[in-house]
Amino acid sequence: MTGGVQHIYLIRHARPLVNKGGFFSKQQAAQYLQDYNLAEVEQIIERSEHLPIDRIKRVFCSTLPRSKATALQLFGQDVELIEDATFREFENRIWGLPLGKFPLLWWQVTSRALWMMGLTHKEIESFKTARKRASQAADHLVKEAQATGIAVLVAHGFLNEFIKRALKRRGWRVTIDGGRGFVGVTQLEKRE
Questions:
Q1: Where are the domains of the chain?
Q2: Which InterPro entries match (predicted)?
Q3: Looking at domain 5-191, which CATH architecture does it have?
Q4: Beta partners for 151?
Q5: 26 backbone dihedrals φ, ψ, rounded to 5°
Q6: pLDDT tens, residue by residue, 138-148
């Protein structure tokens, strides 16, 4: 594509149908993560007015069910859906001593913080490797936007945030920041 403005849309999946209330043991928190990765998602009531649905012919998504289900709800069966493991969420494991029950958020934040510090990545992708993968994902979306004028990704909160950072370093400008909320849409653009 020559001339004009290129757009990239980063969309977080819909809310998974999994209960996260109450207090969790370490084992229960780990089971929650497994359930979350396989869960169906809530029905999307309304689409973002920022998505140019009529221009979107291809949608990238992660290989996790919540991403694919959200993409299908938003764009229907007629869109070309491209599943790619590059767009999977940053891995997470529950870490810590099994010394009682805590709110799920406590387990998640503690585990994620330890992982980001490089203390708990022996069984999973390291934070450094995950950031590199997000940068590669950004390159993939840029290539699509350069070829067609638009790239759309339905993926995950953490991954989308790091893709957004990588795109900003490449000169892309955030025009709408949907944050990390469920079905949040972040729009970036760059003039060719």
A1: 5-191
A2: His_Pase_superF_clade-1, His_PPase_superfam
A3: 3-Layer(aba) Sandwich (3.40)
A4: 8
A5: -60, -45
A6: 999 999 999 99
